[in-house]
Design a protein that fits this description.
The protein is of the alpha/beta class and 328 residues long. Helices cover 46% and strands 18% of the residues.
């Protein structure tokens, strides 16, 4: 009997040791098959470009066939949902954004995932502001003239955005709320789909990702009014913030980070994190991404997880105060 009791007492320790051994094995053997990085936006935008840089450098280190798959639509939700529902083995990860994990959960009654229960957060990769731009033929050169035009012609402005809940969409919503104006907002399947219509005259205002619209601003093809972040961008320091133009609390930025399905073994998360941070520290990678207006982060899994926990209720309050309605 004593022997049986001793075996029973030792069983949890043995199982714990086996679990630890399995995690060590997972870390030492990972990756043992191809890896997919799912991106919820179209090719050519910041999260896609960054993911492809990561895939190239992961392949250099691991030679396991890391590929990027664009799963566009629903403001990035589809890519994050597919990741959340994938096996937790590190073979499928997402370059997911704040729209999918802290904004849309406050706007939509039903999502196919819970951002706190169904995802493991690896590292926040970058933060990016938007720029309020219009084509040169819009007869407004100051923010005051822009607002006056919108009030004088309530049906004049039509904006595109990369999906409901994205920082581009929220930038337009906050602008309307704070200025008492009306803008027709049209969802597209990514920023690169918006730009041809903006340049072609079918749209005439845009809260565009800095990495996509800044070159067009520099070329004189778009007129810029302000950045949507709380601080000016080092890439265009002469451009004021919306706060500086008289809109206190205006903040419509996007961030993106690597995430995996919940239950992914911690050694796999750590290996992905360590490799991602190494990549972000490489001078050529930093130069490429910072030239696009991105602010690089590379925080720990714990810091990234806490960021999501903090921003979920924060955006809930912002959306409620701004009068942005819940979507069914």
């Amino acid at each position: 009997m004593r022997r049986l009791l001793g075996l029973a007492a030792a069983l949890p320790l043995a199982l714990g040791a086996l679990g630890f051994a399995a995690q060590v094995l997972a870390q030492s053997g990972y990756p043992d098959k191809p890896i997919r990085i799912l991106v919820g936006f179209s090719p050519g935008v910041a999260p896609d470009i960054t993911s492809r840089l990561f895939a190239d450098r992961f392949n250099e280190s691991w030679a396991k066939g890391v590929v990027v798959e664009n799963v566009t639509g629903a403001g990035g939700n589809l890519a994050v949902e597919r990741t959340a529902k994938s096996p937790p083995d590190g073979a499928t990860i997402a370059m997911g954004g704040n729209a999918a994990v802290v904004i849309n959960p406050n706007m939509m009654d039903k999502l196919g995932y819970d951002p706190l229960k169904d995802l493991s957060y690896i590292t926040q990769v970058f933060i990016v502001p938007n720029i309020l731009v219009v084509p040169p033929d819009v007869p407004a050169t100051t923010i005051q003239e822009l607002i006056a035009l919108a009030k004088d012609k309530p049906d004049y402005f039509v904006a595109g955005h990369a999906g409901v809940g994205t920082s581009q969409h929220l930038g337009g919503e906050l602008f309307m709320k704070m200025t008492g104006t009306r803008i027709q907002q049209v969802p597209y399947r990514g920023t690169t789909a918006v730009l041809p219509d903006l340049m072609g005259g079918r749209l005439n205002i845009f809260f565009g990702n800095i990495s996509n619209v800044l070159p067009l601003v520099r070329e004189g093809k778009l007129r810029a009014f302000a950045v949507t972040s709380r601080k000016r961008s080092p890439q265009i320091p002469e451009l004021p913030t919306m706060e500086e133009l008289g809109f206190p609390g205006f903040d419509a930025t996007a961030w993106f980070g690597l995430m995996a399905p919940a239950g992914t073994p911690r050694p796999i998360v750590d290996k992905l994190h360590d490799e991602a941070v190494k990549i972000l520290a490489q001078p050529d990678v930093r130069a490429r991404l910072e030239s696009m207006g991105l602010q690089l982060v590379g925080n720990t899994p714990e810091q990234f997880t806490q960021l999501v926990k903090d921003e979920l209720p924060m955006w809930g309050r912002v959306l409620k105060d701004a009068g942005i309605k819940m979507l069914q």
